[in-house]
């Protein structure tokens, strides 16, 4: 594919969640059934990662559920041979988990891919959740640093919602521009795609001092991205089966508006 060319026959979604994360509905087979009925070719299942020490258990599966999660994906692969169903996980970057990601998940469990999704991070020793209220520049900088370290690790197939800081940092100012540039420069240097997370088009908007806007996708971020040699992937981040592909047309329109190049993730399919 070149530019943002994609037809319905090429529908792909690499970012979906099952009931195991405690804030989604449906299991793998439910997503596969919807995908098969609506012309998808690739379904990536990427629930929130379980941590060996139980870090932040309220928004992810337990480690003991990992075998059942893998089995559910394998059963769906057998039941829906017309689909490419990939085995993935969405992960926060945290130094202490790198060997777990590399040795356990990618090697032992043979996951097809990991997504970098920095939903929470530490700032001055405090755990910050991106969805819990507005914060300041310190939090924005801490978020940016963790995302860049994740990009540099080479462990992740793409960065989910890199502009999610729009949910906790109100202004598009010089600080937001600088942090966005750091993320975009890292993505360009390490050739890692950035995700236009189309679920954000259907979430409640926020009123800042200057404008009414999405939490994400953050228009200003993607306008800036047009000046970098990066690639993008559009995913729905679906938390229930009938949301698969939601906002895809809006994501394509955003990518076209700024002439953003679509990433080719077909190599993940060949790994399966």
Q: Biggest sheet, strands in spatial order?
A: 1-2-3-4-7
How do the helices and strands follow one another from N- to C-terminus?
EHEHEHEEEHEHEEEHEHEH
- Per CATH, the architecture is Alpha-Beta Barrel
The low-confidence parts are 1-9
Number of strand elements: 12
- The averaged pLDDT comes out at 93
Q: Share of helix among residues? A: 25-40%
- Could you tell me the CATH topology label: TIM Barrel
Annotated CATH homologous superfamily: Metal-dependent hydrolases
How far is the first residue's CA from the last residue's CA?
21 Å
CATH class category name: Alpha Beta
Radius of gyration: 18 Å
Number of helices: 8
What structural class results from the helix and strand content?
A: alpha/beta
Describe this entry's structure for a reader.
This protein has 272 residues and is an alpha/beta fold. It has one domain: TIM Barrel (Alpha-Beta Barrel). Helix 4 packs parallel to helix 5. The longest helix has 17 residues. The two termini are 21 Å apart. The N terminus is likely disordered.
What topology does this entry show?
Elements: E1 11-13, H1 28-37, E2 40-48, H2 66-79, E3 84-91, H3 98-108, E4 113-116, E5 120-123, E6 126-129, H4 137-153, E7 158-159, H5 174-190, E8 194-197, E9 206-207, E10 212-213, H6 219-225, E11 231-235, H7 248-257, E12 261-262, H8 266-271
Parallel strand pairs: 1-2, 2-3, 3-4, 4-7, 8-11, 11-12
Antiparallel strand pairs: 5-6, 9-10
Helix pairs in contact: 4-5
């Amino acid at each position: 594919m070149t530019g943002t060319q994609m037809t319905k026959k090429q529908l792909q979604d690499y970012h979906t969640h099952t009931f195991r994360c405690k804030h989604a509905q449906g299991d793998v087979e439910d997503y596969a059934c919807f995908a098969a009925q609506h012309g998808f070719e690739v379904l990536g299942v990427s629930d929130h990662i379980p941590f060996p020490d139980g870090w932040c258990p309220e928004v992810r599966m337990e480690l003991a559920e990992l075998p059942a999660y893998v089995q559910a994906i394998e059963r769906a692969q057998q039941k829906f041979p017309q689909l490419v169903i990939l085995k993935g996980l969405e992960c926060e970057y945290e130094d202490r988990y790198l060997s777990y990601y590399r040795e356990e998940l990618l090697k032992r469990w043979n996951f097809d891919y990991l997504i970098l999704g920095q939903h929470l991070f530490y700032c001055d020793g405090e755990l910050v959740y991106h969805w819990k209220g507005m914060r300041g520049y310190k939090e924005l900088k801490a978020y940016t640093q963790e995302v860049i370290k994740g990009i540099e690790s080479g462990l992740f197939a793409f960065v989910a919602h890199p502009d999610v800081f729009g949910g906790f940092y109100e202004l598009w100012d010089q600080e937001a521009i600088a942090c966005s540039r750091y993320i975009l420069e890292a993505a360009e240097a390490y050739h890692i795609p950035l995700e236009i997370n189309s679920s954000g088009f259907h979430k409640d908007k926020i009123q800042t001092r200057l404008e009414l806007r999405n939490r994400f996708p953050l228009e200003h971020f993607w306008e800036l991205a047009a000046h970098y040699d990066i690639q993008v992937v559009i995913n729905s981040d679906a938390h229930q089966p009938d949301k698969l592909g939601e906002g895809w047309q809006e994501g394509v329109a955003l990518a076209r508006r700024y002439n953003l190049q679509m990433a080719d993730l077909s190599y993940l399919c060949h790994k399966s």
